[in-house]
């Protein structure tokens, strides 16, 4: 299954890239499930992020590794892939794209695109939950990168 969410922000793509750090990661965490960050190496190839998700009745570990990081003249992206996932996910690949965008009225902007591929035995039941968790980021991105 796939989810794609685009957010326009009023900063250059290089400024947005500089803001992709641990502090932003923590602000992007959705209200549920509560997330405890155990490890955050960064967004470069080989870096890892380790999380503990608290579903109240049980906890799950999530580990992702950055498998790709590409910088060009008009975009930067990195891909994280799940290496240890909560029981309800069998596959996770998340491409974070920051694209240079020129708006005729507002000038230089960026588009932040979350492109998620996942597999779950819960299928369409989990899709709206995951969609909302990434849609939730739009307001945070706009507030931080205004």
Automatic annotation (TrEMBL):
Domain of life: Bacteria
Name assigned to this protein: Ligand-binding SRPBCC domain-containing protein
Matches recorded under InterPro entries: START-like_dom_sf
Lineage of source species: Bacteria, Pseudomonadati, Bacteroidota, Cytophagia, Cytophagales
